[in-house]
């Protein structure tokens, strides 16, 4: 039996993820039809492929492909080559950068006065926020759909997303990919239509 195509790469990926500090909650939503339960629980052979519009040759996609393959294998699916599997897992990744806005203005002015038996005084203080603009944030979303290859029908679909600072190590693909994939497939197949936060 020939080894799965991602086996060697997954060893290095596992070593990387084992030393990463936990992130905040990952928002996860899953969908599946009750009639698909048998296919989900029978597992069987599956190939992890790029969804339409995704670039299968990019390093980012390959990292997420490996992370998804690892989770599916852990669930009992048997990895197969493209075109030879009973099911196919289509993968797409979207990344958005943004900078949060501030509440209120950057300058605040306060005036205070006092009187007493030893005279009176008035003081004015000006507070200026010198902390600079809020740090840039990056939202990464992993979308996976499992389809029956013969019929082309969708069996299961899920998406997981988290937002971190752009300078966080988890904003990078090699560390972010396994975290999102792990959250997405936790308690598989999940409650259909329910959005949960996975910590």
Low-confidence stretches: 5-22, 104-125
- Reading the helices and strands in chain order gives HEHEHEEEEEEHE
CATH class of the domain at 23-100 and 136-190: Alpha Beta
Beta-strand content bin: 35-45%
| Through-space gap between termini | 37 Å
Q: Averaged pLDDT, please?
A: 75
In CATH, the architecture of the domain at 23-100 and 136-190 is: 2-Layer Sandwich
Strand order across the largest sheet: 3-2-4-7-8-1-9
Q: Name the shape in a single word.
A: globular
Looking at how many chains there are and whether they match, the oligomeric state comes to: single chain
Structural class estimated from helices and strands:
alpha+beta
Helical content band: 10-25%
Largest sheet, in brief, is: 7 strands, mixed
And the CATH topology of the domain at 23-100 and 136-190?
Double Stranded RNA Binding Domain
Computed Rg? 25 Å
Count of beta strands: 9
| H/I helix tally | 4
